[in-house]
């Protein structure tokens, strides 16, 4: 179980870890067929017996759970699930494109934000964090089961894309002058370097969130939420 903290091992086994009562319970409702194993303290297993009738559950002590866990503060239950099948979106609905978002917390939060706004597809450059990194999974809070995440390993998905392609940049036009939309692609760049020139060249519109204070930039996940709130509301 501890070895699944490593990307190589997760890829080899085609599984990932989810921890904590809230995310595990939601995944049990959404994708019960993907559960491969479940480790829980006795009181959690007893309280959730109705959800677990089809699953083999291994009861563990708090100390044993702590040794299995990837978290600093283990939380009652840990599950091993099969990875999801990824597919490239056809671009017919609004899609997020992430360029080298490397921070696991940011990445997972953006997956959750996409789910909040009803975006079912995300495309990621090859330099992005791994979807199944335990910190990413925790940050998605089960949205990992509702958002299809495709890795654009060849860097060609944006080529010839129809419809508007928005890029979040510091030098773009004001977001608030942009009309609402139901289609297109929004590109969010790396936390410190922004959007790479090769990806930025595919953008048809560059947008910025007007700044009133002195902060140099916004967190990538925060910026994503603000832009989507305006474009899609």
Question: Overview of this structure, please?
Answer:
This protein is of the alpha/beta class. Helices cover 29% and strands 22% of the residues. The protein has helices spanning 7-13, 21-30, 42-47, 62-68, 104-116, 134-140, 197-200, 220-232, and strands spanning 15-19, 35-40, 57-59, 77-82, 95-98, 121-125, 148-152, 165-174, 185-188, 205-208. It has a six-stranded parallel beta sheet, covered by helices on one side. A four-stranded mixed beta sheet has the order 1-4-2-3. Helix 5 runs parallel beside helix 6 and helix 5 (104-116) runs parallel beside helix 8 (220-232). The longest helix has 13 residues, at 104-116. The radius of gyration is 19 Å and the shape is elongated. The mean pLDDT is 95.
Give a quick rundown of the structure:
With 233 residues, the protein is of the alpha/beta class. It is built from 8 helices and 10 strands. Strands 7-6-5-9-8-10 form a 6-stranded parallel β-sheet, with helices on one face. A 4-stranded mixed β-sheet has the order 1-4-2-3.
